[in-house]
Design brief:
alpha/beta, six-stranded mixed β-sheet, binds nicotinamide-adenine-dinucleotide
Length: 501
């Protein structure tokens, strides 16, 4: 299968004629399909289309724009199982996690669609007086660049608010997960959007990112990805004073006090530490333990890690799938080796572990041979599998404490007081998410006020979020208006002050 770009309502190959493959990370060397390796010229054509469609789309009544988005959401609901399989096949996460990702996109998309009329009603004639008012106006063409870890949810969280507020979109999916992005484009096409309102161009960020970010007709860039690329994008966007919404990396801390419900705290560490193989931006990666509970907590945590089934995400029995690809596999294992060399104690996981060879599958995900035969560990790693990994005895000077690993690796540190825990939690250039487990209201309050993070959770894991709440980080975890809540819409509008005499 070869998939084209979607530009101006048509499916077309890249001008350059090159394509790239999409590997299923559970099966090393596999190729699910081919996608366009687009060029800057392809991006320019997509921006031409989006700019051309903008004047009519911005004048389209809100109810009509909302109708298109609701039609898209209905199509998404109908195809959720097909899409969940695609997400698992190209990203590796378990099928349960992929279903949850689709559900989350539906909830967030409905939230924005339900919110958009009230959002506009709060502006425009009459909102303040008949002679003086502020009105929202769409900014123009929005560039959307998404990561591979939530290949369809993040895309929706950005694209739907942009469309609802009257902008047109050029979307670039992550190179590791182009299929989910192209599948979303097919649904938006079926939802009847006028040609050019939504465009999808696949390819490497290093090859086409610059053309998208620096095109003067692109007035907003919403990006989710690494801090390094986010910083580059902000610098490039500054050339045209293009606004940016940057959702970036994290090194999220879970603090567990001695008065906490330990079973629930362990559950939070496992859920947010190992879901999506530790590749949530809000994954727990540092676990800070009050000294009196270190031993019982770690015993429970290690027992949970050892029980987890790691394997092909398409199997309903799998607890954790592979990491997303060869780069991630190499980098995570290098970080594990570094942590060992730095003197941290490996108490769960085995970087040399080999998963049983998965059942061969067709690109559709169907098994190619009857299942049921015993499968044995392969001498060579069959996919990019890493077992849940825990290091204790971590100190702030170690790389594992400071650097985002973005894999199933927990770094455990100890502390003696809530003040010390907060200071440890804040000892990071990142500030995305955080959590505390405690039964003391005072301790919870001290943590909420003291922690430097965009998300503060009490007795809830670091990955929890709701669509009505802002989603974004502080420090090097993000910049610009957060996604979700009303700011998810606000990012895509300008304010015009109107005076009538
Ligand atoms: P990445 O920065 O490598 O890539 C993100 C996207 O940017 C991809 O589509 C990629 O193709 C594109 N890109 C790469 N180079 C580019 C360039 N020069 N110009 C324009 N676009 C370019 O990140 P990733 O590996 O896909 O995602 C993992 C990172 O994303 C982690 O750091 C994670 O914490 C972060 N993340 C953050 C959030 C959040 O909401 N804060 C959510 C998910 C992931």
């Amino acid at each position: 299968m070869t998939f084209d770009n979607f530009v101006c309502g048509q499916w077309r190959p890249s001008r350059g004629g090159a394509t790239f493959g999409d590997e299923n990370p559970a099966i090393r060397g596999s190729n699910l399909a081919a996608f366009q390796s687009s060029t800057p010229e392809d991006v320019r054509e997509a921006v031409d289309a989006a700019a051309g469609a903008f004047p009519a789309w911005r004048r389209t009544p809100i109810t009509e724009r909302k109708h298109h988005v609701e039609t898209f959401l209905a199509l998404l609901r109908d195809s959720r199982e097909e899409l969940a399989r695609i997400v698992t096949l190209e990203n590796g996460k378990t099928i349960k996690e992929s279903r949850a990702e689709v559900e989350s996109a539906l909830v967030e998309g409905s939230h924005h669609a339900n919110q958009v009329e009230a959002f506009f009603q709060a502006s425009g004639p009459g909102a303040f007086s008949d002679r003086t008012w502020m009105q929202y106006e769409p900014v123009g063409v929005a560039g959307i660049i998404s990561p591979w870890n939530f290949p369809m949810n993040v895309m929706c969280r950005k694209t739907l608010p942009a469309l609802l507020t009257g902008n047109t979109v050029v979307f670039k999916p992550a190179t590791f997960t182009p299929w989910s992005g192209v599948f979303m484009a097919t649904l938006l096409e079926k939802a009847g959007l006028p040609p050019g309102v939504f465009n999808c161009v696949t390819g490497a960020g290093s090859a086409i990112g610059h053309a998208l970010v620096t095109d003067p007709r692109v007035r907003a860039i919403s990006f989710t990805g690494s801090t390094a690329v986010g910083r580059q994008i902000q610098q490039q966007a500054a050339e045209n004073l293009t606004r940016t919404q940057l959702e970036l990396g994290g090194k999220n801390a879970l603090i567990v006090m001695e008065d906490a419900d330990l079973a629930r705290a362990v559950d939070a560490a496992v859920t947010a530490g190992f879901s999506n193989a530790g590749q949530w931006c809000t994954s727990t990666s540092r676990v800070l333990l009050h000294r009196p509970i270190v031993r019982p907590f770690l015993e429970m945590l290690v027992a949970r890690c050892e029980k987890m089934t790691v394997g092909d995400g398409l199997s309903e029995a799998t607890d954790m799938g592979p990491v997303a690809g060869p780069t991630q596999y190499r980098d995570i294992r290098a970080a594990i080796r570094q942590a060992k060399a730095d003197g941290a104690r490996l108490i769960a996981g085995d970087p040399e572990w080999r998963a049983p060879s998965p059942e061969p599958r067709a690109p559709s995900g169907e098994p190619r041979v009857p299942s049921g035969e015993p499968r044995v560990p392969s001498p060579e790693p069959m996919g990019y599998f890493i077992r849940p990994t825990v290091f204790s005895g971590v100190t702030p000077d170690m790389a594992i404490f400071r650097e985002e690993i973005f894999g199933p690796v927990l770094a455990v540190c100890e502390f003696s007081s809530i003040e010390e825990a907060i200071a440890l939690g804040n000892r990071s250039m990142y500030g995305l998410s955080s959590a505390i487990f405690t039964t003391s209201r005072d301790t919870a309050r001290t943590y909420i006020d003291g922690i430097e993070a965009g998300l503060a959770h009490v007795n809830v894991h670091t990955g929890y979020k709701e669509p009505a709440m802002p989603f974004g980080g502080v420090k090097l975890s993000g910049a610009g208006l957060p996604e979700n809540s009303e700011t998810g819409l606000e990012f895509f509008v300008d304010r015009k002050a109107v005076y009538v005499r």
